[in-house]
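This part of the workshop introduces the protein records we will be handling. Backbone structure tokens are a discrete shorthand for how the chain folds in space. Once this layout is familiar, the rest of the handout is easier to follow. The record below serves as our worked example for the rest of this section.
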Amino acid sequence: MRILIASDAWSPQVNGVVTTLKATRAELESRGHEVAMLTPDLFRSMPCPTYPEIRLALARPAAIARHIEDFRPDAIHIATEGPIGIVARRWCKRRGIAFTTAYHTQFPDYVAARTPLPASLVWRFVRRFHAPARHVLASTPSIRAELAEQGIGHVAHWGRGVDLSLFRPEGEVHPAFAGLAGPILLSVGRVAVEKNLSAFLDCDVPGTKVVVGDGPARAELEARNPGTLFLGKLSGEPLAAAYRGADVFVFPSRTDTFGLVMIEAMACGTPVAAYPVTGPFDIVCEQSGALDEDLTAAIRRALACDRQAVARIGSRHSWSTATDQFVAALATIAE
């Protein structure tokens, strides 16, 4: 198939959406599919208000239409609800062309955390955006149930995977961990208000807290938490080495639809402590970590997990299986 993926999230952003799309494109191309990415780097862009790391494309509808028409796709997938996604959706609707969408992010909660808009108002936009899609792809049963409650019922499963050649128990530990007081508690992700990092940093537990990632809240949180080690962005082997060196991976977010970083940590043998909310609820079991409304209690229980068992559970998530699900959804369009 010739597959066009339209996304407002792309490099140099570092987040679960970008990781998912890059891994999916690589898997698709390895199977012989032709993939074109319609992303902000193709157009002039501006920083997103309150979140300058995200670039919003300033593309004329005609320019987006030209990109789509020049590629002549057999199937179109619209990954995000931003400017590119909105224009690509309009292009498909006007021509009567079927397409799929995805619900990657708890968009209503993110907007509510950053603006005065209530989540209920944003859900109206989300329902309208996804209504004409052939399928709305979602990663977990909890998200599919939530979308159904919000009136979005045409949902198909699209799971997530992990690069098991990189994220594995065997290997070096990040050198920055040398000499740190244990246990080492790690969190990885965007350092932003919606990630609820302050809940992790406020936990009264012994050991050393480590944060990997960058974002608009980093300067404030780093100033308020001098005992926490902030390593900035890591990727590849340095990131895997950080996962391996941690005793517990702490995931304090309440707004993620999945949380790729959790299965990356698990694949390295590091148990997860999180809240019992969408994302962790579908990923973390008693053998791979602990869920509790008291995050400190979850951390203490996760410390008792067997790392070999955690790694076995983490290794069950593959990009090959996830891409099978993605292709199955798009195949109905191509036909």
About this structure: The chain has 14 helices and 14 strands. The chain has two domains: 2-161+318-334, 175-314. The first helix runs from residue 16 to 30. The CA atoms of residues 200 and 252 lie 6 Å apart.
